[in-house]
Amino acid sequence: MEKVRRLIFILLLVGICSPALGEKWTASVVKSLEAVVGSCVVLPCSFNYPGTLLPTSRLRGIWHLSKEDTKIVYSEDNTKVLDSFKGRTNMLGKLGDKNCTLEITDVKDHDNGPFCFRIELVKTHDNKETTEKYSFVDECAELKMQRDPPEPELFQSNTAVQGKPYAVTCSVRHTCPSHVPVFTWSRGSKDDVIHIQKPVLSGIWETQSIMVFIPEEKDDHTQITCTAAFNGGKVKSRSIQLNVKRIGNIYHIIIPVAVAIGTAVIFGVICIAVMKKYKLSRMS
Ligand SMILES: *[C@@H]1O[C@H](CO)[C@@H](O)[C@H](O)[C@H]1NC(C)=O
C-alpha cells in the first residue's frame, strides 16, 4: 500500500512539473510535400523553445538549406538570402504564435530542399542583448517536383432531371493554399458556383467548385467542362456528358396505361351483360 501511495505521489509531481519540463527546442515540419514547378508551395511549420513566451519582435526566423546554415533561403534581412531564392520566399506564419509556415513562390525544379528552420531568440539582460539560436536540422522539408498540376476530378449528383436543380462538383488537390486554383465552367454563371477549400493532410489542400443549375431538355447529351487555372498559369480541364431525364416521358406512360384500363373495363362490362342475358334466356 505504501508503495502505491508513493507511486501516486511521484506521478502527481511529474504531472505538475511536466509543463515546465515540456518546453524544449522542437519543431514540427512536413517532411515531404509535392510542389508544381512554376506554382507556389506552402510548408506548414510550428516550433517551440524553452523559457518565456516572446513576441514576434524578439524572434528571428530563418530558413536555410540542410546542414549548411549559411545557405539562407528566407530571412527578414533580404541581403542574406541566396540569389536563387531572393524575392521568392515569404514567412506566412506569425513567429510570436510559434508558427514558422513558409511560402515559396514561382517554384523552380531545383527547389527540392531540404529546407530547415532556425529560430533566434533576442533577449536583453542588464541592457545587454544576447541571442540564442537553434537550427532544427532533424526536421527539414523536402519537395517532390511535379512538372504539371493534376487534372481536376468531376463528380455528378444522382441523375439529372429536367427542371430540377442539379449539382456537378469539380475538385483538385494542391499544396498552394495561399494562391488557390481558380475554376471556370463551360456553362452557367458565376452566381451558380460555390467554392470550398479544405485541408486533406498536413500541407495538402483540396479546392472544390460546385456548380448548381437547372438542366433543360436541350442539355441532354451535351458536355460540361470544368477548367482549373493554377497559380503560375498552368491550366487543366476535364469534361463529362450530361444525361437529362425528361419529365415529358411520364405522359407517354400514363396515356397507354389509361387506354388499356379503359378498354379492359368496357370489355368486362360487355362480358357481364352478355352472361346475364345468356342466363336469363336459359331460365325461361
Ligand atoms: C500558421 O500560419 C499559417 C499561415 O498564416 C496558417 O494557415 C496556419 O493555420 C497556422 N498554423 C497554426 C497551427 O496556427
Written overview of the protein:
This is Ig-like domain-containing protein. With 284 residues, the chain is of the alpha+beta class. The chain folds into two domains: 20-146, Immunoglobulins (Immunoglobulin-like, Sandwich); 153-245, Immunoglobulin-like, CATH 2.60.40.10. It contains two helices and 20 strands. The strands form seven sheets. The protein has a four-stranded antiparallel β-sheet with strand order 6-5-9-10, with no helix packed on it. The protein has a four-stranded antiparallel β-sheet with strand order 12-14-17-16, with no helix packed on it. A three-stranded antiparallel β-sheet has the order 3-8-7, with no helix packed on it. Strand 18 and strand 19 (235-241) form a beta hairpin. The longest helix has 35 residues, at 249-283. The protein binds 2-acetamido-2-deoxy-beta-D-glucopyranose. 2-acetamido-2-deoxy-beta-D-glucopyranose binds at residues 46, 92-93, 99, 101.
Number of discrete domains: 2
Q: Fraction of residues in helices?
A: 10-25%
Q: Cα-atom Rg, whole angstroms?
A: 35 Å
Number of strands: 20
CATH topology (level 3) name of the largest domain = Immunoglobulin-like
- How many H/I helices? 2
Global mean pLDDT? 87
Anisotropy-based shape: elongated
**Main beta-sheet annotation:** 4 strands, antiparallel
* Order of neighbouring strands in the sheet with most strands: 6-5-9-10
Keywords: Membrane, Signal, Transmembrane, Transmembrane helix
Protein name: Ig-like domain-containing protein
Domain Ig-like: 152-241
InterPro entries: Ig-like_dom, Ig-like_dom_sf, Ig-like_fold, Ig_sub
